[in-house]
Amino acid sequence: MREYQLYIDGSFVPAESGQTFDSINPFNQEIVARVSRASAADAKKAVVAARRAFDKGPWPLMPREERSALLKAVSDKINEKGKELVALEVADSGSTIRKAKEDIFLSARSMNYFSKLAALDLTEPVEGLGKPGFSKNLIVREPIGVVAAIIPWNFPLKMATWKLGPALAAGNTVVLKPSELTPCTALELAQIIHEAGFPKGVVNIIPGFGPEAGEELARNPLVDKVSFTGSTAVGKKIMALAADQLKKVTLECGGKSANIVLHDADLDLAVDGALYAMFYHQGQCCEAGSRLLLSRKISAEFIQRLLEKVGKLRTGNPSDPSTDLGPLISRKQQERVLGYIKQGKKEGARIAAGGGVPTAHDLANGFFVQPTVFTEVRNEMKIAQEEIFGPVLTVIQYDTEDEAIALANDSMYGLGAGVWSRDNERALKIAGRLRAGTVWINEWHLISEKAPFGGYKQSGIGREFGIEGLKEYTETKHLHIDELGSREKKPWYDTVVPK
Ligand code: NAD
Questions:
Q1: Which CATH architecture is the domain 258-441 placed in?
Q2: Most CB atoms closer than 10 Å: which of 11, 15, 416, 478?
Q3: Atom of ligand 1 nearest to the CA of 155
Q4: Cα distance between residue 279 and residue 176, in whole Å
Q5: Distance of CA 139 to the CA centre of its chain
Q6: Is-above-0.90 flag for pTM?
Q7: Could you report the per-residue pLDDT of 315-331, keeping only the tens digit for each?
Q8: Which of 3.40.50.150, 2.60.40.1180, 3.30.70.420, 3.40.605.10 is the CATH number of 2-253+459-479?
Q9: Could you tell me the CA-to-CA distances from 193 to 8, 190, 401 in Å, in that order?
């Protein structure tokens, strides 16, 4: 069993209360690590350290190239420790080993990308402001200050790098709170950051629970911005807490993404795509394609092919490379998902696959749910409106493209969407009418650190990734530099100033 402490002001320290919590392997319920439990007092301490590092430390004024080199060193170290991090992510989060390998690789790759962003000068001229020769005008991007980053459990290390990378690249200092369910790889990242030689207090990582450490971060007056990824319900709470000081917020929240298959789709591709969209990481993805909208012209054949494939999915030990679906993150999540399955049956949807817990005795200690497909779903049912965050696909049929678009948009969420068709132009026209932050055409889950990602409607506020995501971690300053050099030529000379 591993042991982890809080990382505050460049040191690994126990929680002030001395309390710890256990992080559990969702496959066998063994303890993966005993972890110091950050309380509000520890969160305050971490914020004070980050504030000092921003206000008095070298970080925000450090040459961009130096900040960039430190981020690159983190990327390299993640790669070096790759194997260990993969095994730890599998044990701590129930991620299949195939997904975990991809996650660790992508964590290193995105840190490398953010290190390049750190070297960019984002200053831009403002053209056409006033007459030529009067003044020079620049838009300057400066760090916001202290960023509190709060992340969920579904992509633990990747989320940590997705928050730390751009926040640090822009020159902010950070307090990161990983999920209490998956703190381990973020704390390994703390060790990596420590070894890389970041100035004290620039990065602070405090594992703990939402209502204790998390709320303190959202309300603490020394925090300038909260960057949150998690459920819409908690996102709203954080926004309310942050409102008191009008803190900046970006919120990456839930989804119920519509996956539209047109009658002219390549069915081999679309069936596999629908499977991947829904069942990747047991459906525990914010952008999971959990509402499958099928053209009635192809729905019978599509469902038959889909069910054949679902029947072949292997649920099992996440460390086994042949496993397609591992356990859900916790007993609570398992019960929640089973509750939705019960609800779907009550609402009159038909279970076409799964619907329960796997019976194999070697899975008895894990928090498993069978890959489940509901057909005969109506979009107004709870199982089609609420985010289940588990392996439960709802299939809805439509007759016309207008109807498909209306169904897709009839949701409080607007995170992702997809269109499968052999005709890109047709798919593009539909994509333009979908109220979602990302639309994939003949693809799914492709999220890149280079392209903005985020939600319409209650899926969030702001965007992550790319230059747009970097700018979310900056304040914008207009710099006006006079070039006239003489008071008589000033346009305001004849207004109030006595001659
Ligand atoms: P969650 O909202 O329960 O928790 C997320 C984080 O917030 C955790 O660190 C948790 O400790 C913290 N938290 C909980 N209550 C808090 C409070 N009152 N104050 C401050 N912090 C608090 O979400 P989860 O169950 O960990 O993750 C699943 C959710 O995350 C899903 O809704 C999913 O869609 C969403 N998600 C969104 C994205 C995205 O990019 N849009 C990505 C991944 C996950």
A1: 3-Layer(aba) Sandwich (3.40)
A2: 416
A3: 43
A4: 29
A5: 29
A6: yes
A7: 999 999 999 999 999 99
A8: 3.40.605.10
A9: 12, 5, 50
